[in-house]
Every structure is written in C-alpha cells, then in structure tokens.
Write a structure and sequence with these properties.
Helices cover 56% and strands 11% of the residues. The protein has 22 helices and eleven strands. The protein has helices at 2-5, 32-51, 68-80, 91-101, 146-158, 164-169, 171-181, 201-225, 248-256, 269-276, 282-286, 295-318, 335-351, 353-362, 372-402, 407-414, 418-433, 442-446, 450-468, 476-498, 502-518, 522-549, and strands at 59-62, 87-90, 111-117, 121-129, 132-141, 186-191, 194-200, 233-239, 261-262, 320-322, 330-332. The strands form four sheets. Strands 5-4-3-8-9 form a five-stranded mixed β-sheet, with helices on both faces. Strands 1-2 form a two-stranded parallel ribbon. The protein is elongated, with a radius of gyration of 33 Å.
Length: 574
Amino acid sequence: MNGQAAGQPAAFIPRPRHPAEDTTAGDAGGDALEVAASPLRRVAAEAERVVGQPVRDVRVVVPAGWGPRRRTWMRQVAHRAGLPQPRLVEAPVAVAEYLLATGVRVPVGAFLVVCDVGAGAEVTVLRRVPAGFEVLATLADAAAGGTAVDQALADALIGAPMGEGQRASVAHSVRVAKEALVSHPAVTVPLPDRPPVIANSAMLDEAVRPVAWRVAQLTQETVAAAELTVGDLVGVYCVGGSAQLPHLAEAIAEHTGAVPIVVPEPGLVAARGAADVGAVDTATVERVEVPVPPVRRAAAIAVPGFASLALIWQCLLTAERHGTLGVYYSVSVNWGEFTMAAVMALLACLAAGTVLGSLIAARSPTPGTRTEGGRVSVGILAAVSLGAAIAGLYAVVTSQYFGVPVGPYLKWALWPIAPVSVMAVAMAVVAARQWRSPHGGWSALLAAPTGSIVAATLGMGLIQYSLTADRWPDRILWIDIAGRVGGLLLGVAVVMAVVTPLMFRLILAAPLAVIFAAIVSRRAAGMLGVIYAIAVATWWATRLWSRVLRPAPPLPTAPPTGRVRADMSPGGGG
C-alpha cells in the first residue's frame, strides 16, 4: 500500500481510523466508512477462523477524547464490517483495567495518569471508583506521537521536506529504522529510486526531542485540568506504539516531577485491558463498601462532636434561674456557649459527610447515589440536615428543661449555622455535577480545623466558668484570670479559623486575643460566640472558593528552545 502511494497520492489515506467528515477515498472509490471497515472485516474473519464460530462480543478501543459523533462513526464502521453492535471502551480505561489485572495497586478514590503515545498522543487522568474508572480530564495532540517522529526523521534522511505521497513511499523504511535505532547506534535505510542512506541515533534524538517535550507538557496540562497535583497521583503509565521512544520518560519526569512507568508490551495493553472490562460480577461491582475512617478523619469527627456535647452540658448545668418563687421567672443562659454548641454539632456532622454518603448509598437502590459524586453530594446534604436537627434539638430540650419559650433558643441555635449550611449545600451541588474534585479529596475538605475547635471549646468553657463559679474571696483572682485566659484562647481560635499562613496567625493572634480577653463579660459572651460562628463561616467560604470554585493553577514551566508543532486534536494517539 505504501509503495502505491507514490504513484497514486490522491488515493492514499494515511489515517483511516480518524473519521474525516465523510470524505471519499479519492481515485480508489468508496467512502471513508468502507476504508475503515476493511481492516475490521479482515480481523473478524481471522477471529472466526481461530475460534471456529462467529464473533459475538466485539470491543473497540477508542480515544477518551472522542465525542458522540466519532463514537457513532465507529459503530457505523463496525456495522459496515459485518460485526455485531460493538462495545466502545475508552483506551485509558482499558489500560487501567489491565494494570489492575496485573497486580498494580490502585485503591478506590486514587488517581493515575495514562500517557497513550502512538501515532499521536492522548494523556488522561483517571480516578478509580467502586464500579471501575472514570475519566477526569483528557487532552490530545496529533502532532505529539510516532507520526511526527517519522515525518521529522524522513525529512532528515531525504534532506528536504516531502509531500504526503513521497513520505508514504519511505514510511515503512523509516519506521523500521526508528525501531532499530532504539537499540543500535546506526542503521542503513533503503530508499526507493535513490541510494540508501545512514541513519544514526543522533538523528532520532533530534526528531524525538520536541515530541517528547510536547507529551510532557501535555501531561502537566492534563493533571492541572483535573484540578490535581503530581503528589495526588499513584502513578504515570506510558503505553502505545511509541511509548518506548528515547527521552520520553526523562522528559515527563523533568517536566512534571513524576517518574513514569513504561508498561511492558505497551502496544498491546489497551487491547488486553478492553477484554477484561466488565468481566467482574456485577453484584460485586454494584456493592458499595462503607469506608472506615482513619485515625485523623475519626479525630476530625470526634473532636467537634465531643466539644458540642461538652458545651451544651456546661450551658445547661451552669444556667442561672431567677424568680423561681415569684411571678417573673427567667433563665440566664450563656448564648455564646449555646451558639458554639450548635456550630460544633454541624461541623461534626459535615466531617462525617463522606461516611454518611457511603452508608446511604450502600442501602439505596438509586444508581446515581453509587457514584462518588452522588455519594458525596448525598452525604453533605444528610450532614447539613443532621446538624440542623441536632441544633434544633438543643433548642427544644433546653427550653423544655427550663420551662421557657423555645423561640430565643431556636434563634441562637439555627441562625449562626445558616451561612455554613448554605456553603455546604453549594459543595453538594458541585459534587453531584462532578464539576471538579478538591485537592486532597472531599473528606479532607469537609474536616474543620481541629486546633481551632479545641482552643474555642476550652476558651468558652473557661469564660463560662468565670461567669458562674462561686466567687469566694480567696478564689476571685483565679476565677477572673481563668476568664481572661478563656478570652485569649477564643481569640486565638478565631484567628486559626480565619487565617491559614503561620506568620499571619502570629501577627493577628496577639491583638485579637488581648481584645477578647479584655471584653470578657456576661453581656459580651453571646457576641464572642457569634464572632466564632462568623469565623467558621469565613473558613468555609475560603475553602469553597480556593479548593472548589477557583483553585490555584500550577506554575507554568518554560518550554525548551526551538519550534514545537502544537496541532491540538480531540482524537487520541493510536
């Protein structure tokens, strides 16, 4: 076929796999569907000869960047070839399934990158979910693969740029020379209608270098598009017919900081992985395991939970009743401590959001709740509802315990947690639409700062003790000091919630802590609790903006000197 291309350049189709807007095959006659169906027809005939029966299960590997039009085109090609309805398997998903089958450890929720370098390049970031793998981001460049290397090497051998037909006439010789130069310093390349020439490894290096750099750049851009960093990945795997090109792995490692792994027999990995897709029993796949939180996540749930219980317990036991024997009966409650108990309850529920989502998904018949986004979304909404219910329960129990109207207690319990609840619902919407995943995962995003919670709880506890303790003459000084120390701790807790950099914390903590310590009083206690609730809402607003809505992009790196061709295409490398 390559030999006829020089004589009939109009009939030569270099890449029949790409659906070229229903173009024809030139003088050869026939449309693009027939040209692409011809090799599939031969493959089907050979498969039937080997197994002795017609092919019933057809799986076609396609690039992850192909949209509905190209996928429809590929199904039409299979139909024209006489094959049954094919199952289209995305190439990076097939590669990931192959890695799992060969013992590579990829935990559920982990991220990996597949660099498919064939005729072109397609780089994809995947995340493992209980039902398989999902594509988070994919970028492709048709000029970053073996075809570009072949063209550059052919031009270097001939000494001048060639047309499509001329290049096709020497394509086979150039490909053989390229593969031989991987392990030999120089080879002789026969050329049609002219004497043979010598190709050496320096010529191959010169042809590969811009392609390798472009693949490395594409890898970095894809990781950034998935809102991840290299540290979030369990590995970078190179597959495809051109994955073993020299300098490719080194370029990716230098550009991204991650050392890639070239999978053995990289040209066959996707086909082998596609055969394993769907081989697992569906009953096993559909089951959702409820994760057991590690120690750090368990602490993020337990600390605000116990803090909430401690605050409401002290609030109830130290409340002062007035007029118990008269007509005018009233109760003095530390509204700041009551508010902080409600806030801590909501924070504990949100920290357990992903666990709640898994518990609900494990018992839900709805398929949408079994995806990671669905579980996180349902878990956050359940956490907000549970936190609001606990805060309301605090109000009802307190009012019934003292026999007073519930209205003021509901106001101090529910209004301060409203801003955090609204932002949590916004996060649930983002998770449900699978817009993006935050750096570090949803569990880390939903965990409130433990240090701030501990400092705030101790601070408000000391303030309440100083306001209600029996003021014996020999203990007045120590009781007052305890109240001032409580104000200091509460001021530090507010700074820890609002400010992240350590230097700014040190600068702001001193004056704010002194102010809080100076204004400690029965009247100011409610205001201090509301200030802490506002600080927590500010912390959540910052997390929502910086981790979900507008995450900071990675710093760009400068490309090497020289011209690099960057013809972006949605189709991947073959």
